[in-house]
């Protein structure tokens, strides 16, 4: 019985976080600046994927779990000419203030 209560509590907590996350994301995504940054990020990820092929990792669960923010670091450290535009885009997003 205790496990069922624990699962139910985790489920309720998860739903609460999902509601909070939705409200925060919805509020943030309403701004034009946020949409511009989102499009820039999508653009540089698509561009970097042509060389790094990290989108293929999404199909393999064992490799999918390692897709995280370190992907941006991998793009920044890449010396490939193909990744020049993604590196410039990342630095312009991270350095704007």
Q: How would you describe the overall organization of this protein?
A:
The chain has helices spanning 2-29, 32-52, 61-64, 70-77, 84-95. The chain has 97 residues and is mostly helical. It folds into 2 domains: 1-30; 31-97, no CATH class. Helix 2 (32-52) packs antiparallel against helix 5 and helix 4 packs across helix 5. The radius of gyration is 18 Å and the shape is flat. The N and C termini lie far apart (52 Å). Mean pLDDT is 76; it is low at 1-9.
Strand percentage? under 5%
Q: Counting H and I runs of at least 4 residues, what is the number of helices?
A: 5
> How many domains is the backbone divided into?
2
What would you call the shape?
Answer: flat
Structural class: mainly alpha
* Biggest β-sheet strands, sense, barrel: none
| Uncertain stretches | 1-9
Rg from Cα: 18 Å
Mean pLDDT: 76
Question: Total strand count, please?
Answer: 0
Order of helices and strands: HHHHH
Give the % helix: over 70%
Query: Span between N and C termini?
Result: 52 Å
Question: Characteristics of this structure?
Answer:
single chain; 97 residues; mainly alpha; 2 domains; 75% helix; disordered N terminus
Offer a quick outline of the entry.
Helix content is 75%, strand content 0%. With 97 residues, the protein is mainly α.
List the SSEs and their pairings:
Layout: H1 2-29, H2 32-52, H3 61-64, H4 70-77, H5 84-95
């Amino acid at each position: 019985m205790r496990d069922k209560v624990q699962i139910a509590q985790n489920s309720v907590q998860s739903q609460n976080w999902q509601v909070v996350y939705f409200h925060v994301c919805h509020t943030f995504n309403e701004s034009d600046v946020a949409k511009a940054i989102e499009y820039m990020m999508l653009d540089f990820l698509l561009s970097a994927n042509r060389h790094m092929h990290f989108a293929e990792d999404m199909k393999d669960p064992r490799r999918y779990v390692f897709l995280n923010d370190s992907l941006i670091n991998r793009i920044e450290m890449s010396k490939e000419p193909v990744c020049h535009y993604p590196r410039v885009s990342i630095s312009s997003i991270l350095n704007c203030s």
